[in-house]
Each structure stands twice: as C-alpha cells, then as structure tokens.
Amino acid sequence: MRTQFGTVVVFVKLIFKLKTPVPTEDDVLGAIKKQLSRQFRTTQTTFQNATYIKLTDTSYAINLGFKITNVTLESLSNRLTFTNETYIKIQDSINSLLHNLLSEPEGKQFQFPNADFIVDGTEIRANVLYVFKEDDVNHPSSFLQEVLKVSGLLTTTVAPTTTTSTTPLHTLLLTTPFNTTSVGGFPGWALAIIIPCGIAIILVPLWILLCCMLCGCCAAVRRRWHRRRSYNVQYTTRNGLF
Questions:
Q1: Average pLDDT over residues 78-82
Q2: What is the pLDDT of residues 20-70, one digit of tens each?
Q3: Distance of CA 14 to CAs 65, 106, 112, 222, Å?
Q4: Is the distance from CB of 75 to CB of 86 less than 8 angstroms?
C-alpha cells in the first residue's frame, strides 16, 4: 500500500425552506456567480457549476459542484483503497469546504452531514445534503448573505464600524439672550405693540357705550331736578300770594 494524490468531486445540495415564495432562478444564480467565482480561487478547491431547483412554492435547492485536488489517498496496485482513514481525511476536506462556503472564518464550527462516497478510478465523488438552519451559522459568508438576501431570510445586518474621535469637543458659551422670534410668527417687539392696541380697540367701544349710558342718566337726572325745582318755585310763589 502506498500514498498517492487524488481528486474529490463534491456535489453539495443546499435546501432552503422559506415562509414566503421562493426567489427566481436568475436571482439565486446571480448571487452565486457574484460570490463563489471569486471566493474559491485557491489551487486546491475550485468552484465548478451551480443549478437551481424549485422544490415547492416555499422551498428550493441549490446544487453546487466543487473539485478538491491533491487529496492524500491510500492506494493498492493503482487502485484506491477506501480505508477509514481515507474517509476521515476526505470528510475533513469536505467539512472545511462547507464551512468556507457558508461561514466566515471566525464563525462557529458545526457538524455537517456525512457525505456519500462513490469511487470511480482515481476519482472520488462525494454527495452532501444540507438543509439550512439559521442557528447553525452565526457569521454567514458573503455567498450565504447574498443567497439569504434574495430569499428574504436576512433578518440582521452588519452593524457599521464606529470610530471614536479623540478631538475634544468645543464648548459654546451663550453670551446673548435667546431669540424670542418664533418660526413663521411675529417678533417680540411687534407683539408688544399689537396686543395693547387690540385691547384698546376692544375697550374703546365699551367705554363709548358706558359714556353714552352715563350721559343719558345724567340728562334724565338733570331734567328731573329742573322739574322739581320749578315746582318748588311755583309752590313758594303761590304761598306768598296767599
């Protein structure tokens, strides 16, 4: 038995279950092409192809193809020997691939489903089925963020980076009184003139009416007083004659 390098072709089937209608094929494949083409440019792992499958009105799947080269394999007489150690190495490579596919490097590690393997000469084909769960990924990759965005599952956004300024704040001292002018209103000095004038306009007619009433009462009193005085004069004259 000797060690040789082989190739593993990995077919990943991602299933997304939504509560809303599924996105269109163009939106999903556009997000995949935008991210995966530049995310997997290493010499060992390359992105091959992607297909979109609508499962129901609220669920869909993405089939992704990857090729992992230079994988250490055990062989016997030009034939691969699929030992337990070989299986573990390939599964580790697939787990690393899936983690890079779905999560940022600082994201938590979680257990992916074991792959189903098929040996074909010096090539091994691995099929992985994964149903997306939000609890599995706490730091989604750029690819997953794009897919979740078009799927309506991106409920959180990355908080903007805040910088602390070391420049001291300037203190503004108020040395003038507050401006009493209201937006769209009259200035204070105008109100000081308008209000007394308004009061005077209201009180003048009342004052005139009061004066008229007083003048009428005074005239009536004067007439009554003159009549009484004339009566007293006549009465005195008559008494003097008799």
A1: 65
A2: 999 999 999 998 887 776 666 666 788 889 999 999 999 999 999 998 887
A3: 11, 22, 12, 113
A4: no
Confidence of residue 170 (pLDDT cuts 50, 70, 90): very low
Buried b (16+ CB within 10 A) or exposed e, 41-55: eeeebebeebebeee
d(CA 153, CA 169): 42
Show contacts of 36-45: CB within 8 Å, 24+ apart: 36/64, 36/101, 36/143, 39/100, 39/101, 39/141, 39/142, 39/143, 40/66, 40/100, 43/69, 44/68, 44/69, 44/70, 45/69, 45/97, 45/100
Q: How far apart are CA 89 and CA 136, in angstroms?
A: 23
Query: What pLDDT, on a 0 to 100 scale, did the predictor assign at position 109?
Result: 83
How many degrees, rounded to 5, is the angle at CA 28 between CA 46 and CA 113? 60
pTM of the model: 0.59
> What span, in angstroms and rounded, lies between the C-alpha atoms of 10 and 124?
8
pLDDT digits (tens, 9 = 90+) for 127-138: 999 999 888 888
Number of neighbouring beta carbons within 10 Å of residue 232: 10
φ, ψ of residue 116 in degrees (nearest 5): -100, 125
Distance CA 164, CA 150 (A): 34
The C-alpha angle with vertex 159 and arms to 158 and 163, in degrees rounded to 5, equals 140
